[in-house]
Description:
The protein has 636 residues and is an alpha/beta fold.
Amino acid sequence: MINLQGVSLQRGGRELLQHADCRIFPGHKMGIIGANGCGKSTLFKLLLGQLESDSGHVEIPAGWRIAHMAQEVAASGQSALDYVLDGDTELRRLQQELQQAEISGDGRRQAELHEQLAAIDGYSGPARAAQLLDGLGFSHADQSRPVNSFSGGWRIRLNLGRALMCPADLMLLDEPTNHLDLDATLWLEQWLQRFPGTLLVISHDRDFLDAVVDGIVSFEQQKLVLYNGNYSAFERARAERLAQQQAQYEKQQAERAHMEDFVRRFRAKASKAKQAQSRLKALDRMAAIAPAHVDSPFRFSLPAAEKNSNPLLDLRDADIGYGDNAVVHKVQLGIQPGRRIGLLGPNGAGKSTLIKTLAGELPPLSGSRLQGEHLAIGYFAQHQLEALDGDASPLLHLQRLTPEASEQSLRDFLGGYGFSGERVFERVAGFSGGEKARLALAILAWQKPNLLLLDEPTNHLDLEMRHALTLALAEFPGAVILVSHDRHLLANTVDEFILVSDGRATPYDGDLENYKQWLLGFNRDRKKRESRAAEVTAADKTADDKKAQRRAAAALREQLKPLTNRLKSIEQQMARAEKNLADLENRLADESLYSGGQQEEIARLNREQAQQRKKLEDLETEWLEISEQLEAARAE
C-alpha cells in the first residue's frame, strides 16, 4: 500500500502538509481534491520521488510501476502514435534490443526477445496505442501527424494517452479531463473503471469523480483526510461533519435557506417538462450539499443588463462554418430573454462554430443573423485566457472597461472571484490557469450581459469555483447558451438541450443520462462505419493490387518474351540432339558394324557422336544461362 506517516512539507514559504497521515490500499481509486495551491500536484511529486518531505515517511511498494501524466509536451517531430507508444518503456526497450540483435545477427538473442515481447503482449502495442488515440478524439490521420503540429490542449491529450499506454501498478493523473470534450471524458471514465491498478486522480470534475473513484483524499488544514465513496458521498459526509460544528451552523443554515428559496421560486415557475423536473431534482440536491461548501472563498453573482430585446438574437436558415465549408445547415434558433440552452454533440460536430456564429465572430455562410437592439453578449471562448493582457493587473482590466468606477467597487467585485488584497495589483502573466479563468469570468460579468455564450468555461477552475459558478449561473436572469463537458454544470444551469450532430442543430428531449447513452452508441456506430470503410478500402486496395499485379505480370512476360522464346527453341534443339545422339549410339552398338570392312563408317559415326555431344553440351550451357537470366528478372 501507499503509506504517508507524519509527512510535513513546505514550498515557497507555505506549509502545505503538517504531520499528515494517509494510507491507500492496492487497487483503490482515489480522487485528490482541495483548493488551488493546497499541494495536490506536490503530493504527486512526493510519490514520484521528485521531492522529499521535510519530515515523516513516504512509502510505496518496491517494484511498483508508476504511470504519470505530464503537464507539458516538448516539441517533437515524432508521430502522435510513436509518442504514445513511448509510454510503454518496457516495450520500447525490447524493440530496441531486438533491432540491435537483428543487426548483429544474434539469432538466439532474437528468439529470447521475441518470447519477452509475446509475454508482455508487445505485438499488439501499436494497435493499443491507436485505440487510445481514437478514444481521446484523434482521427486516423492525426495519428501520423508530428507532435509539434498539435495545439497545446491536444498535446495534453497526447500526454494522457502516453500515461494510459504505460502498464502500471500505480497511475497518477493530474486534471486529465481539463482539455477533453464530453465524449472523450466518457471514454476515459470507462477506461479507468477497467484499470486494475491503484489510481490517484486530481480532478475538478465532480461527475467524473463520481463515475471513477471509490474514495476521496481531501486537503484540509494541512492534513490529508480520507473519505469512503465517490465525490457525492464526500460532500454528504463533509456537510454532516460541518453541520456539527457550532461555529459554522448559522452560516450553513443561511446558505441552505438561500438555496431552498431559489428552488421554491424555480418550482413555482417551472412546467412539468422532463428537463424542468430534472433540474428541480438537481437543485434540491444542491441545497442538500450546500453546507459542504460553506467555507468556499468564492461568492459572486452575475448581474444582467437592465434592458432586453425579444428576441435577443435570431438565426434563420443559417448555414454556419468556415470559408466555403458549412459545418451545420439550416439552423433555426431564436434566443429569448431567460432562455437557457445546453449544446450537446460529438467532438467536431460544430458546437463551438455555432457559439462563434451567435457571438458574431463568424458570419453565417447563408441565411441571416438578426440581433435585438438591446443585445449585450458576454462571450467566454475556449481560448479566452489568451486574450488577457499579461502585463496588466485584474484591477486594470476592469478599469479599462469602466474608468469612472471607483477602485473600491472594483476591488469588492474582484474579491468575489478570489482576488483580494494586493492580488488585484499583480501581473496576470504570473497567474495560474485557474486564476486566469476566474479573471476572464469576472471581466465578462462586470459588463452585465443579457446573453451569456459560454464555451467550456470550467477548464482550469477548481471544484469550489465551479460550485460558485454553478450557483451564479443558476440565478443569472439572462439567457445562457452553454457548451461544457462538466455535466453537473449543465444539469444545474440549463433548461433545454440542442443536439448538434450530422450537420443539424435540433432540440433534444432527453436528459444527460439519455445523452450519455446516445453518445456512446454514436461512437460505437462511428467506429463500425470507419471499420466498414476501412474494410472496403482494403478490399478495393486488394482488387487494385491484383489488377496491378496482373498488369505487371503481363508487362514482365512481354519484356521476357525474347528470352522465353529462345529458351523454348534451345529445349527443342536439345531434344533433337539427344535423339540424334541416341540413334548414333544405337548404330555404334550394332555388332554387325564390326564384321569387317566398315572402318570408315565407324570413324564417321564416332565423329558425328562427338559433334552431337559437343552440341548438346553447348545447348545445355546456353539453357542454364538464359534460365538464370529469367529467374533474376522475375525476382526484381
